[in-house]
Amino acid sequence: RLRRAAKAAARRAAVAEPSRAMPRRQPVAAAGTKPEPLKDPYNDRPVNEAPPPPAQLLGSESFWNNKGTPDLDLLKSHLLLEGMLSQELLLDLIKKASDLFAKEPNLLKLNDPITVVGDIHGQYYDLVKLIEVGGKPGDGQYIFLGDYVDRGSFSIEVVALLFAYKIVYPKRIKMLRGNHECRQMTSFFNFREECEYKYDESVYNAFMDAFDTLPLAATINGKFLAVHGGLSPDLTTLKGIASLDRFQEPPREGLLCDLIWSDPYEKDEPPPKAGKKNAKDNLFVPNQVRGCSYFYTFEYVNRFLHKNQLLSVIRAHEAQLEGYKMHRTNPATSFPSVITIFSAPNYCDVYNNKGAILKFDNSTLNVLQFNCSPHPYHLPNFMDVFTWSMPFVTEKVTEMLYYILQPAAGKVEDEQTLPDLPPAVQKVYRQSLSVEANRTVELASQLAQMVECAATKPKGVEEVADVHDRMRKKVRTIARMARMFKTLRQENETVLRLKGVCPGHRLQAGLLLAGKDRMVSELEKFGHAAQVDQANEMRPTTEAVATPATEIRSIIDKAPKDRGDDEPGEEERPASNSKQAAAASASGKKEEEAAKTPGTAEAAGKDAAKAGVAAPKAAAAKAEAAAR
Protein backbone atom coordinates (compact mmCIF):
# COMPACT_ATOMS: atom_id res chain seq x y z
CA ARG A 1 0.00 0.00 0.00
CA LEU A 2 2.85 2.37 0.81
CA ARG A 3 4.54 1.60 -2.51
CA ARG A 4 1.35 2.26 -4.46
CA ALA A 5 0.71 5.49 -2.53
CA ALA A 6 4.27 6.73 -3.20
CA LYS A 7 3.98 5.93 -6.89
CA ALA A 8 0.61 7.68 -7.13
CA ALA A 9 2.01 10.77 -5.43
CA ALA A 10 4.98 10.81 -7.79
CA ARG A 11 2.73 10.55 -10.81
CA ARG A 12 0.49 13.35 -9.58
CA ALA A 13 3.54 15.57 -8.96
CA ALA A 14 5.00 14.78 -12.39
CA VAL A 15 1.75 15.41 -14.22
CA ALA A 16 1.01 18.61 -12.32
CA GLU A 17 4.51 20.07 -12.66
CA PRO A 18 4.18 21.71 -16.11
CA SER A 19 1.10 23.64 -15.00
CA ARG A 20 2.78 25.38 -12.03
CA ALA A 21 3.05 28.68 -13.85
CA MET A 22 3.12 31.28 -11.11
CA PRO A 23 2.13 34.40 -13.11
CA ARG A 24 -1.21 32.91 -14.14
CA ARG A 25 -2.30 32.90 -10.53
CA GLN A 26 -1.50 36.57 -9.99
CA PRO A 27 -3.39 39.63 -11.22
CA VAL A 28 -1.69 42.34 -13.27
CA ALA A 29 -1.24 45.77 -11.70
CA ALA A 30 -3.60 48.45 -12.97
CA ALA A 31 -2.37 50.83 -15.65
CA GLY A 32 -0.19 53.63 -14.28
CA THR A 33 0.15 52.06 -10.81
CA LYS A 34 2.87 50.06 -9.11
CA PRO A 35 2.19 46.43 -8.15
CA GLU A 36 0.72 46.24 -4.66
CA PRO A 37 2.65 44.32 -1.97
CA LEU A 38 1.26 41.20 -0.41
CA LYS A 39 -1.24 42.15 2.29
CA ASP A 40 -0.84 41.11 5.90
CA PRO A 41 -4.19 41.91 7.59
CA TYR A 42 -3.34 40.05 10.82
CA ASN A 43 0.22 41.38 11.03
CA ASP A 44 1.55 37.92 11.86
CA ARG A 45 4.42 37.55 9.39
CA PRO A 46 7.28 35.66 11.10
CA VAL A 47 9.94 37.98 9.61
CA ASN A 48 8.46 41.46 9.60
CA GLU A 49 11.73 43.17 8.66
CA ALA A 50 11.70 41.46 5.26
CA PRO A 51 9.64 43.49 2.76
CA PRO A 52 6.56 41.65 1.51
CA PRO A 53 6.70 40.45 -2.10
CA PRO A 54 4.47 42.03 -4.73
CA ALA A 55 1.05 40.43 -5.02
CA GLN A 56 0.56 41.65 -8.59
CA LEU A 57 2.43 41.26 -11.86
CA LEU A 58 4.18 44.19 -13.48
CA GLY A 59 2.34 44.74 -16.74
CA SER A 60 3.06 46.71 -19.89
CA GLU A 61 0.71 49.56 -18.91
CA SER A 62 2.70 50.23 -15.73
CA PHE A 63 6.12 49.63 -17.25
CA TRP A 64 6.05 51.71 -20.45
CA ASN A 65 5.42 55.44 -20.22
CA ASN A 66 3.76 57.66 -22.81
CA LYS A 67 7.03 58.04 -24.74
CA GLY A 68 7.46 54.26 -25.02
CA THR A 69 10.48 54.03 -22.70
CA PRO A 70 10.49 51.66 -19.72
CA ASP A 71 10.69 52.59 -16.04
CA LEU A 72 14.00 50.91 -15.18
CA ASP A 73 13.95 51.80 -11.48
CA LEU A 74 10.49 50.27 -11.12
CA LEU A 75 11.62 47.13 -12.91
CA LYS A 76 14.77 46.72 -10.82
CA SER A 77 13.00 47.24 -7.48
CA HIS A 78 10.10 44.99 -8.52
CA LEU A 79 12.46 42.14 -9.37
CA LEU A 80 14.44 42.70 -6.17
CA LEU A 81 11.26 41.95 -4.23
CA GLU A 82 10.83 38.70 -6.19
CA GLY A 83 8.11 40.25 -8.30
CA MET A 84 7.11 38.77 -11.63
CA LEU A 85 6.46 40.31 -15.03
CA SER A 86 3.42 39.59 -17.07
CA GLN A 87 4.16 37.18 -19.89
CA GLU A 88 3.07 39.79 -22.42
CA LEU A 89 5.58 42.30 -21.07
CA LEU A 90 8.43 39.77 -20.91
CA LEU A 91 7.88 38.62 -24.50
CA ASP A 92 7.76 42.26 -25.59
CA LEU A 93 11.13 42.95 -23.93
CA ILE A 94 12.66 39.90 -25.57
CA LYS A 95 11.34 40.85 -29.03
CA LYS A 96 12.55 44.47 -28.89
CA ALA A 97 15.98 43.55 -27.57
CA SER A 98 16.33 40.76 -30.12
CA ASP A 99 15.63 43.18 -32.97
CA LEU A 100 18.41 45.46 -31.70
CA PHE A 101 20.92 42.59 -31.42
CA ALA A 102 20.11 41.33 -34.91
CA LYS A 103 21.12 44.69 -36.42
CA GLU A 104 24.58 44.59 -34.81
CA PRO A 105 27.61 42.99 -36.50
CA ASN A 106 29.41 39.88 -35.26
CA LEU A 107 32.42 41.98 -34.22
CA LEU A 108 31.65 45.21 -32.36
CA LYS A 109 34.07 48.16 -32.37
CA LEU A 110 33.99 50.06 -29.08
CA ASN A 111 36.00 52.77 -27.32
CA ASP A 112 36.47 53.75 -23.70
CA PRO A 113 35.16 54.72 -21.23
CA ILE A 114 33.60 51.29 -20.90
CA THR A 115 33.00 48.63 -18.21
CA VAL A 116 33.65 44.96 -19.01
CA VAL A 117 31.54 42.36 -17.16
CA GLY A 118 32.14 38.59 -17.03
CA ASP A 119 29.85 35.66 -16.19
CA ILE A 120 26.70 36.41 -14.15
CA HIS A 121 24.93 33.01 -14.18
CA GLY A 122 21.50 33.96 -12.89
CA GLN A 123 22.77 35.83 -9.80
CA TYR A 124 20.40 38.81 -10.06
CA TYR A 125 21.13 40.30 -6.64
CA ASP A 126 24.86 40.31 -7.42
CA LEU A 127 24.10 41.97 -10.77
CA VAL A 128 22.38 44.84 -8.94
CA LYS A 129 25.47 45.18 -6.72
CA LEU A 130 27.66 45.09 -9.83
CA ILE A 131 25.76 48.02 -11.35
CA GLU A 132 26.20 49.99 -8.13
CA VAL A 133 29.97 49.40 -8.29
CA GLY A 134 30.34 50.06 -12.00
CA GLY A 135 27.95 52.99 -12.27
CA LYS A 136 24.55 53.49 -13.88
CA PRO A 137 24.36 52.17 -17.44
CA GLY A 138 23.13 55.54 -18.70
CA ASP A 139 26.29 57.23 -17.46
CA GLY A 140 28.74 54.99 -19.33
CA GLN A 141 29.12 52.02 -21.63
CA TYR A 142 28.86 48.37 -20.58
CA ILE A 143 29.86 45.24 -22.43
CA PHE A 144 28.77 41.88 -21.01
CA LEU A 145 30.79 38.85 -22.11
CA GLY A 146 28.04 36.22 -21.87
CA ASP A 147 26.79 33.45 -19.55
CA TYR A 148 23.82 35.34 -18.15
CA VAL A 149 21.75 32.24 -17.35
CA ASP A 150 21.95 28.82 -15.63
CA ARG A 151 23.28 27.73 -12.24
CA GLY A 152 21.52 30.56 -10.37
CA SER A 153 17.77 30.74 -9.66
CA PHE A 154 17.16 34.25 -11.06
CA SER A 155 18.26 33.95 -14.69
CA ILE A 156 15.01 35.40 -16.06
CA GLU A 157 15.39 38.44 -13.83
CA VAL A 158 18.99 38.94 -15.01
CA VAL A 159 18.16 38.79 -18.71
CA ALA A 160 14.97 40.86 -18.34
CA LEU A 161 16.88 43.71 -16.65
CA LEU A 162 19.74 43.60 -19.18
CA PHE A 163 17.32 43.54 -22.11
CA ALA A 164 15.48 46.54 -20.64
CA TYR A 165 18.79 48.44 -20.34
CA LYS A 166 19.56 47.50 -23.94
CA ILE A 167 16.23 48.93 -25.13
CA VAL A 168 16.73 52.21 -23.27
CA TYR A 169 20.46 52.59 -24.05
CA PRO A 170 21.03 50.63 -27.28
CA LYS A 171 24.42 52.26 -27.98
CA ARG A 172 25.71 52.03 -24.41
CA ILE A 173 24.78 48.42 -23.58
CA LYS A 174 26.50 45.63 -25.52
CA MET A 175 25.97 41.94 -24.88
CA LEU A 176 28.01 39.04 -26.29
CA ARG A 177 27.08 35.40 -26.50
CA GLY A 178 28.44 32.85 -24.01
CA ASN A 179 28.50 29.08 -24.10
CA HIS A 180 25.37 28.89 -21.89
CA GLU A 181 23.27 30.97 -24.29
CA CYS A 182 22.15 27.95 -26.29
CA ARG A 183 19.45 25.30 -26.19
CA GLN A 184 21.74 22.45 -25.25
CA MET A 185 23.23 24.01 -22.12
CA THR A 186 20.01 25.63 -20.87
CA SER A 187 18.21 22.29 -21.17
CA PHE A 188 21.00 20.44 -19.39
CA PHE A 189 21.10 22.99 -16.57
CA ASN A 190 18.17 24.85 -15.01
CA PHE A 191 17.26 27.82 -17.22
CA ARG A 192 14.72 25.89 -19.27
CA GLU A 193 13.11 24.54 -16.13
CA GLU A 194 13.02 28.06 -14.66
CA CYS A 195 11.21 29.36 -17.74
CA GLU A 196 8.67 26.54 -17.68
CA TYR A 197 8.14 26.92 -13.93
CA LYS A 198 7.67 30.69 -13.91
CA TYR A 199 6.04 31.02 -17.35
CA ASP A 200 5.83 28.41 -20.12
CA GLU A 201 7.77 26.98 -23.03
CA SER A 202 6.96 29.88 -25.35
CA VAL A 203 9.03 32.20 -23.14
CA TYR A 204 11.94 29.77 -23.24
CA ASN A 205 11.79 29.54 -27.04
CA ALA A 206 11.69 33.33 -27.30
CA PHE A 207 14.84 33.58 -25.16
CA MET A 208 16.62 30.99 -27.32
CA ASP A 209 15.77 32.88 -30.51
CA ALA A 210 17.07 36.07 -28.93
CA PHE A 211 20.33 34.39 -27.86
CA ASP A 212 20.91 33.37 -31.50
CA THR A 213 21.14 37.06 -32.39
CA LEU A 214 23.81 38.05 -29.84
CA PRO A 215 27.16 39.31 -31.25
CA LEU A 216 30.26 37.17 -30.73
CA ALA A 217 33.17 39.53 -30.01
CA ALA A 218 34.26 43.16 -29.73
CA THR A 219 37.38 45.28 -29.94
CA ILE A 220 38.05 48.02 -27.38
CA ASN A 221 40.16 50.99 -28.50
CA GLY A 222 41.37 48.78 -31.33
CA LYS A 223 43.80 47.14 -28.87
CA PHE A 224 41.77 44.61 -26.88
CA LEU A 225 39.72 41.67 -28.17
CA ALA A 226 36.73 40.94 -25.90
CA VAL A 227 35.20 37.48 -26.29
CA HIS A 228 33.58 34.91 -24.02
CA GLY A 229 35.94 31.95 -24.49
CA GLY A 230 38.95 32.72 -26.62
CA LEU A 231 40.82 31.90 -29.83
CA SER A 232 40.47 29.19 -32.44
CA PRO A 233 42.69 27.36 -34.94
CA ASP A 234 40.31 28.73 -37.61
CA LEU A 235 40.89 32.33 -36.47
CA THR A 236 43.95 34.08 -37.84
CA THR A 237 42.55 37.60 -38.36
CA LEU A 238 39.57 39.48 -37.01
CA LYS A 239 37.93 39.33 -40.43
CA GLY A 240 37.16 35.68 -39.74
CA ILE A 241 34.76 36.71 -36.97
CA ALA A 242 33.02 39.30 -39.12
CA SER A 243 32.22 36.78 -41.87
CA LEU A 244 30.81 34.10 -39.53
CA ASP A 245 27.12 33.07 -39.56
CA ARG A 246 26.12 33.46 -35.91
CA PHE A 247 22.34 33.04 -36.19
CA GLN A 248 22.30 29.37 -35.24
CA GLU A 249 22.71 26.90 -32.40
CA PRO A 250 26.48 26.64 -31.69
CA PRO A 251 27.98 23.51 -33.31
CA ARG A 252 30.36 21.12 -31.55
CA GLU A 253 33.36 22.29 -33.57
CA GLY A 254 34.48 25.18 -35.69
CA LEU A 255 35.07 28.89 -35.14
CA LEU A 256 31.71 29.64 -33.51
CA CYS A 257 32.23 26.81 -31.01
CA ASP A 258 35.79 27.88 -30.17
CA LEU A 259 34.92 31.55 -29.59
CA ILE A 260 32.58 30.60 -26.72
CA TRP A 261 34.21 27.38 -25.44
CA SER A 262 38.03 27.57 -25.67
CA ASP A 263 40.40 28.21 -22.74
CA PRO A 264 44.03 29.36 -22.40
CA TYR A 265 46.60 26.62 -21.79
CA GLU A 266 47.76 27.01 -18.18
CA LYS A 267 49.70 23.85 -17.35
CA ASP A 268 53.33 24.10 -16.31
CA GLU A 269 54.54 21.46 -18.74
CA PRO A 270 54.72 22.46 -22.41
CA PRO A 271 51.98 21.22 -24.76
CA PRO A 272 52.66 18.00 -26.68
CA LYS A 273 54.43 18.46 -30.02
CA ALA A 274 52.74 17.26 -33.18
CA GLY A 275 55.70 17.67 -35.58
CA LYS A 276 56.52 20.06 -38.37
CA LYS A 277 53.83 18.71 -40.71
CA ASN A 278 51.13 19.70 -38.23
CA ALA A 279 52.66 22.88 -36.85
CA LYS A 280 49.22 24.32 -36.07
CA ASP A 281 48.52 21.36 -33.74
CA ASN A 282 51.51 22.43 -31.64
CA LEU A 283 49.66 25.63 -30.77
CA PHE A 284 46.37 24.04 -29.69
CA VAL A 285 45.55 21.17 -27.30
CA PRO A 286 42.19 19.34 -27.33
CA ASN A 287 40.10 20.60 -24.41
CA GLN A 288 39.20 17.48 -22.45
CA VAL A 289 37.82 19.55 -19.58
CA ARG A 290 35.13 21.13 -21.76
CA GLY A 291 34.53 18.10 -23.94
CA CYS A 292 34.93 20.24 -27.07
CA SER A 293 37.11 22.99 -28.57
CA TYR A 294 40.76 23.59 -27.58
CA PHE A 295 43.27 25.04 -25.17
CA TYR A 296 45.16 27.79 -27.01
CA THR A 297 48.81 28.17 -26.07
CA PHE A 298 50.71 31.23 -24.93
CA GLU A 299 52.77 31.11 -28.11
CA TYR A 300 49.73 31.26 -30.37
CA VAL A 301 48.16 34.13 -28.39
CA ASN A 302 51.30 36.21 -28.86
CA ARG A 303 51.35 35.45 -32.59
CA PHE A 304 47.69 36.38 -32.95
CA LEU A 305 48.10 39.62 -31.02
CA HIS A 306 51.12 40.63 -33.06
CA LYS A 307 49.46 39.83 -36.40
CA ASN A 308 46.29 41.78 -35.55
CA GLN A 309 48.09 44.61 -33.73
CA LEU A 310 46.32 43.88 -30.44
CA LEU A 311 47.52 44.23 -26.86
CA SER A 312 45.52 41.54 -25.04
CA VAL A 313 42.53 39.18 -25.12
CA ILE A 314 39.84 39.87 -22.50
CA ARG A 315 37.61 36.88 -21.79
CA ALA A 316 35.29 35.33 -19.18
CA HIS A 317 34.24 31.65 -19.05
CA GLU A 318 36.27 30.56 -15.99
CA ALA A 319 35.64 31.14 -12.27
CA GLN A 320 38.45 33.01 -10.49
CA LEU A 321 39.07 33.28 -6.77
CA GLU A 322 39.74 37.03 -6.89
CA GLY A 323 37.23 37.63 -9.70
CA TYR A 324 39.95 38.14 -12.31
CA LYS A 325 43.27 36.73 -13.50
CA MET A 326 46.17 38.27 -15.38
CA HIS A 327 47.72 35.48 -17.44
CA ARG A 328 51.30 35.27 -18.69
CA THR A 329 52.91 38.52 -19.76
CA ASN A 330 53.71 39.04 -23.40
CA PRO A 331 57.44 39.80 -23.53
CA ALA A 332 56.99 42.02 -26.58
CA THR A 333 54.53 44.37 -24.82
CA SER A 334 55.10 43.67 -21.08
CA PHE A 335 51.31 43.35 -20.77
CA PRO A 336 49.25 40.24 -19.88
CA SER A 337 48.46 38.33 -23.07
CA VAL A 338 45.09 37.15 -21.67
CA ILE A 339 42.87 38.64 -18.95
CA THR A 340 40.04 36.56 -17.46
CA ILE A 341 37.18 38.38 -15.75
CA PHE A 342 34.46 36.66 -13.68
CA SER A 343 31.56 38.66 -12.22
CA ALA A 344 29.59 36.06 -10.21
CA PRO A 345 30.77 36.30 -6.56
CA ASN A 346 30.40 33.19 -4.39
CA TYR A 347 29.64 31.25 -7.55
CA CYS A 348 26.93 28.63 -7.04
CA ASP A 349 26.79 29.68 -3.35
CA VAL A 350 29.84 27.52 -2.56
CA TYR A 351 32.94 28.84 -4.39
CA ASN A 352 33.43 31.70 -1.90
CA ASN A 353 35.12 33.78 -4.63
CA LYS A 354 34.95 37.50 -5.32
CA GLY A 355 33.38 39.11 -8.34
CA ALA A 356 35.18 41.66 -10.49
CA ILE A 357 34.71 44.03 -13.42
CA LEU A 358 37.15 45.90 -15.65
CA LYS A 359 36.84 49.64 -16.21
CA PHE A 360 38.56 51.33 -19.17
CA ASP A 361 38.93 55.08 -18.91
CA ASN A 362 41.45 57.21 -20.83
CA SER A 363 43.34 54.08 -21.91
CA THR A 364 43.71 53.11 -18.25
CA LEU A 365 42.57 49.70 -17.04
CA ASN A 366 41.21 49.34 -13.50
CA VAL A 367 39.89 46.23 -11.73
CA LEU A 368 36.97 46.67 -9.30
CA GLN A 369 36.13 43.80 -6.97
CA PHE A 370 32.94 43.19 -4.98
CA ASN A 371 31.54 40.54 -2.66
CA CYS A 372 28.32 38.58 -2.93
CA SER A 373 24.94 39.95 -1.84
CA PRO A 374 22.31 38.04 0.16
CA HIS A 375 19.47 36.63 -1.90
CA PRO A 376 16.22 34.73 -1.25
CA TYR A 377 16.54 30.99 -0.83
CA HIS A 378 15.07 28.64 -3.43
CA LEU A 379 14.88 24.88 -3.18
CA PRO A 380 16.78 23.15 -6.00
CA ASN A 381 14.94 23.09 -9.34
CA PHE A 382 12.09 25.09 -7.75
CA MET A 383 11.05 22.06 -5.71
CA ASP A 384 7.78 22.38 -3.78
CA VAL A 385 7.55 21.76 -0.04
CA PHE A 386 5.70 18.46 -0.45
CA THR A 387 8.45 17.01 -2.63
CA TRP A 388 11.08 18.40 -0.28
CA SER A 389 9.46 16.71 2.75
CA MET A 390 9.05 13.27 1.16
CA PRO A 391 12.48 11.89 2.23
CA PHE A 392 11.79 12.92 5.85
CA VAL A 393 8.25 11.46 5.86
CA THR A 394 9.38 8.22 4.25
CA GLU A 395 12.19 7.78 6.75
CA LYS A 396 9.83 8.25 9.70
CA VAL A 397 7.21 5.88 8.26
CA THR A 398 9.76 3.11 7.85
CA GLU A 399 11.00 3.68 11.39
CA MET A 400 7.43 3.31 12.67
CA LEU A 401 6.95 0.08 10.73
CA TYR A 402 10.22 -1.26 12.06
CA TYR A 403 9.33 -0.64 15.71
CA ILE A 404 5.80 -1.96 15.20
CA LEU A 405 6.98 -5.24 13.67
CA GLN A 406 10.09 -5.80 15.80
CA PRO A 407 8.27 -6.66 19.10
CA ALA A 408 5.83 -8.93 17.25
CA ALA A 409 8.73 -11.05 16.00
CA GLY A 410 9.75 -11.90 19.54
CA LYS A 411 6.23 -12.79 20.76
CA VAL A 412 5.68 -15.65 18.35
CA GLU A 413 7.80 -18.10 20.38
CA ASP A 414 5.96 -17.22 23.61
CA GLU A 415 2.61 -18.08 22.09
CA GLN A 416 3.43 -21.79 21.54
CA THR A 417 0.86 -24.06 23.23
CA LEU A 418 0.88 -27.70 24.33
CA PRO A 419 -0.38 -30.21 21.74
CA ASP A 420 -3.96 -31.49 22.02
CA LEU A 421 -4.55 -35.12 23.05
CA PRO A 422 -6.43 -37.47 20.74
CA PRO A 423 -10.25 -37.40 21.30
CA ALA A 424 -10.27 -41.11 22.20
CA VAL A 425 -7.84 -40.61 25.06
CA GLN A 426 -9.83 -37.66 26.39
CA LYS A 427 -13.08 -39.67 26.28
CA VAL A 428 -11.62 -42.67 28.20
CA TYR A 429 -10.11 -40.68 30.97
CA ARG A 430 -13.12 -38.45 31.51
CA GLN A 431 -15.47 -41.39 31.95
CA SER A 432 -13.40 -43.07 34.65
CA LEU A 433 -12.23 -40.05 36.66
CA SER A 434 -13.63 -36.98 38.25
CA VAL A 435 -13.38 -33.55 36.64
CA GLU A 436 -10.36 -32.51 38.72
CA ALA A 437 -8.58 -35.75 37.99
CA ASN A 438 -9.39 -35.52 34.30
CA ARG A 439 -7.73 -32.08 34.11
CA THR A 440 -4.61 -33.30 35.92
CA VAL A 441 -4.25 -36.37 33.76
CA GLU A 442 -4.86 -34.38 30.56
CA LEU A 443 -2.10 -31.94 31.45
CA ALA A 444 0.30 -34.77 32.32
CA SER A 445 -0.49 -36.54 29.07
CA GLN A 446 0.15 -33.42 27.04
CA LEU A 447 3.52 -32.93 28.69
CA ALA A 448 4.46 -36.55 28.16
CA GLN A 449 3.46 -36.38 24.51
CA MET A 450 5.65 -33.28 23.99
CA VAL A 451 8.64 -35.02 25.63
CA GLU A 452 8.19 -38.20 23.56
CA CYS A 453 7.86 -36.24 20.32
CA ALA A 454 10.87 -33.97 20.95
CA ALA A 455 12.75 -35.45 17.98
CA THR A 456 9.79 -34.99 15.61
CA LYS A 457 8.00 -31.68 16.11
CA PRO A 458 4.29 -32.09 16.81
CA LYS A 459 1.72 -30.74 14.38
CA GLY A 460 1.57 -26.94 14.31
CA VAL A 461 5.15 -26.19 15.42
CA GLU A 462 6.48 -25.99 11.85
CA GLU A 463 3.71 -23.57 10.93
CA VAL A 464 4.57 -21.39 13.92
CA ALA A 465 8.25 -21.47 12.90
CA ASP A 466 7.34 -20.43 9.38
CA VAL A 467 5.30 -17.51 10.67
CA HIS A 468 8.15 -16.50 12.92
CA ASP A 469 10.65 -16.73 10.05
CA ARG A 470 8.48 -14.60 7.80
CA MET A 471 8.04 -12.01 10.52
CA ARG A 472 11.79 -11.94 11.10
CA LYS A 473 12.39 -11.38 7.37
CA LYS A 474 9.85 -8.57 7.37
CA VAL A 475 11.66 -6.86 10.23
CA ARG A 476 15.00 -7.19 8.43
CA THR A 477 13.49 -5.80 5.23
CA ILE A 478 11.96 -2.84 7.03
CA ALA A 479 15.30 -2.22 8.75
CA ARG A 480 17.07 -2.16 5.38
CA MET A 481 14.43 0.22 4.03
CA ALA A 482 14.87 2.47 7.06
CA ARG A 483 18.64 2.62 6.53
CA MET A 484 18.18 3.31 2.83
CA PHE A 485 15.68 6.12 3.35
CA LYS A 486 17.85 7.63 6.06
CA THR A 487 20.73 7.75 3.58
CA LEU A 488 18.48 9.30 0.95
CA ARG A 489 17.28 11.91 3.43
CA GLN A 490 20.86 12.81 4.39
CA GLU A 491 21.86 13.07 0.73
CA ASN A 492 18.81 15.22 0.08
CA GLU A 493 19.88 17.61 2.84
CA THR A 494 23.36 17.79 1.32
CA VAL A 495 21.93 18.56 -2.11
CA LEU A 496 19.86 21.37 -0.61
CA ARG A 497 22.98 22.86 0.95
CA LEU A 498 24.89 22.53 -2.34
CA LYS A 499 22.05 23.39 -4.66
CA GLY A 500 24.11 25.84 -6.72
CA VAL A 501 26.79 23.32 -7.61
CA CYS A 502 24.39 20.50 -8.38
CA PRO A 503 21.31 21.88 -10.12
CA GLY A 504 19.15 18.98 -11.10
CA HIS A 505 21.15 16.79 -8.70
CA ARG A 506 23.80 16.35 -11.37
CA LEU A 507 26.59 16.25 -8.83
CA GLN A 508 26.92 13.27 -6.54
CA ALA A 509 25.26 14.22 -3.27
CA GLY A 510 27.67 14.72 -0.37
CA LEU A 511 30.74 14.92 -2.60
CA LEU A 512 31.49 18.59 -2.04
CA LEU A 513 31.36 18.43 1.77
CA ALA A 514 33.78 15.49 1.91
CA GLY A 515 36.81 16.47 3.91
CA LYS A 516 35.72 20.05 4.52
CA ASP A 517 37.36 20.07 7.96
CA ARG A 518 40.82 19.97 6.40
CA MET A 519 40.18 22.97 4.14
CA VAL A 520 41.44 25.83 6.25
CA SER A 521 42.10 28.52 3.65
CA GLU A 522 39.86 30.22 1.13
CA LEU A 523 42.14 29.03 -1.68
CA GLU A 524 41.65 25.39 -0.67
CA LYS A 525 37.88 25.86 -0.52
CA PHE A 526 37.83 27.47 -3.95
CA GLY A 527 40.12 24.82 -5.44
CA HIS A 528 38.10 21.97 -3.98
CA ALA A 529 34.82 23.44 -5.22
CA ALA A 530 36.27 24.00 -8.70
CA GLN A 531 37.63 20.46 -8.83
CA VAL A 532 34.34 18.88 -7.80
CA ASP A 533 32.37 21.09 -10.19
CA GLN A 534 34.68 20.32 -13.11
CA ALA A 535 32.29 17.70 -14.50
CA ASN A 536 29.61 20.37 -14.90
CA GLU A 537 31.98 22.52 -16.99
CA MET A 538 31.97 19.88 -19.74
CA ARG A 539 29.69 20.26 -22.71
CA PRO A 540 26.87 17.66 -22.67
CA THR A 541 27.27 14.83 -25.15
CA THR A 542 23.55 14.65 -25.95
CA GLU A 543 22.06 17.19 -28.31
CA ALA A 544 18.45 17.00 -27.11
CA VAL A 545 17.92 16.97 -23.36
CA ALA A 546 14.49 16.27 -21.92
CA THR A 547 13.01 18.54 -19.28
CA PRO A 548 13.01 17.31 -15.65
CA ALA A 549 9.23 16.82 -15.75
CA THR A 550 9.59 14.61 -18.82
CA GLU A 551 12.39 12.67 -17.15
CA ILE A 552 10.29 11.99 -14.05
CA ARG A 553 7.33 10.83 -16.11
CA SER A 554 9.53 8.52 -18.20
CA ILE A 555 11.12 7.04 -15.06
CA ILE A 556 7.72 6.34 -13.53
CA ASP A 557 6.46 4.77 -16.75
CA LYS A 558 9.52 2.51 -16.97
CA ALA A 559 9.39 1.48 -13.30
CA PRO A 560 8.21 -2.10 -12.57
CA LYS A 561 4.45 -2.33 -12.32
CA ASP A 562 2.72 -3.37 -9.09
CA ARG A 563 1.16 -6.81 -8.85
CA GLY A 564 -2.26 -5.19 -8.74
CA ASP A 565 -4.60 -4.46 -5.91
CA ASP A 566 -3.83 -7.80 -4.28
CA GLU A 567 -1.01 -7.82 -1.77
CA PRO A 568 1.95 -10.17 -2.48
CA GLY A 569 2.01 -13.46 -0.63
CA GLU A 570 3.60 -13.77 2.77
CA GLU A 571 6.35 -16.02 1.47
CA GLU A 572 7.06 -13.83 -1.56
CA ARG A 573 7.33 -10.40 0.04
CA PRO A 574 10.58 -10.80 2.05
CA ALA A 575 12.42 -12.42 -0.86
CA SER A 576 11.19 -9.74 -3.25
CA ASN A 577 12.25 -6.97 -0.93
CA SER A 578 15.67 -8.58 -0.56
CA LYS A 579 16.14 -8.64 -4.33
CA GLN A 580 14.96 -5.06 -4.61
CA ALA A 581 17.41 -3.94 -1.94
CA ALA A 582 20.22 -5.69 -3.79
CA ALA A 583 19.12 -4.06 -7.03
CA ALA A 584 19.06 -0.68 -5.34
CA SER A 585 22.63 -1.20 -4.13
CA ALA A 586 23.77 -2.20 -7.61
CA SER A 587 22.00 0.74 -9.24
CA GLY A 588 23.60 3.11 -6.71
CA LYS A 589 27.07 1.98 -7.84
CA LYS A 590 26.10 2.57 -11.47
CA GLU A 591 24.92 6.05 -10.60
CA GLU A 592 28.26 6.92 -8.94
CA GLU A 593 30.08 5.85 -12.09
CA ALA A 594 27.61 7.73 -14.29
CA ALA A 595 28.08 10.93 -12.27
CA LYS A 596 31.74 10.97 -13.35
CA THR A 597 30.96 10.56 -17.07
CA PRO A 598 28.05 12.63 -18.43
CA GLY A 599 27.93 10.46 -21.56
CA THR A 600 26.94 7.38 -19.54
CA ALA A 601 24.50 9.17 -17.22
CA GLU A 602 21.46 8.50 -19.37
CA ALA A 603 22.21 4.76 -19.61
CA ALA A 604 22.74 4.52 -15.85
CA GLY A 605 19.45 6.29 -15.27
CA LYS A 606 17.62 3.72 -17.39
CA ASP A 607 19.30 0.85 -15.51
CA ALA A 608 18.34 2.38 -12.17
CA ALA A 609 14.73 2.83 -13.30
CA LYS A 610 14.53 -0.83 -14.38
CA ALA A 611 16.12 -2.16 -11.21
CA GLY A 612 13.71 -0.48 -8.83
CA VAL A 613 13.82 -0.32 -5.02
CA ALA A 614 11.38 -1.10 -2.25
CA ALA A 615 9.65 2.25 -2.76
CA PRO A 616 9.18 3.52 -6.35
CA LYS A 617 9.48 7.10 -5.14
CA ALA A 618 13.04 6.42 -4.01
CA ALA A 619 13.81 4.68 -7.28
CA ALA A 620 12.51 7.63 -9.26
CA ALA A 621 14.55 10.09 -7.21
CA LYS A 622 17.78 8.09 -7.55
CA ALA A 623 17.26 7.44 -11.24
CA GLU A 624 16.50 11.10 -11.83
CA ALA A 625 19.75 12.09 -10.10
CA ALA A 626 21.74 9.71 -12.28
CA ALA A 627 19.98 10.71 -15.48
CA ARG A 628 20.74 14.37 -14.90
3D architecture notes:
With 628 residues, the protein is of the alpha/beta class. The protein has helices spanning 2-16, 60-63, 72-80, 87-102, 124-134, 155-168, 183-188, 191-198, 201-211, 239-242, 255-261, 298-307, 385-411, 423-432, 435-452, 461-497, 522-532, 548-558, 572-596, 601-611, 616-627, and strands at residues 107-110, 114-117, 141-144, 173-175, 217-220, 224-227, 263-264, 284-286, 294-296, 312-315, 324-326, 329-330, 335-336, 338-341, 355-361, 364-370. The strands form 4 sheets. It has a 6-stranded mixed beta sheet with strand order 1-5-6-10-14-11, with no helix packed on it. It has a 5-stranded mixed beta sheet with strand order 4-3-2-15-16. Strand 8 (284-286) and strand 9 (294-296) form a beta hairpin.
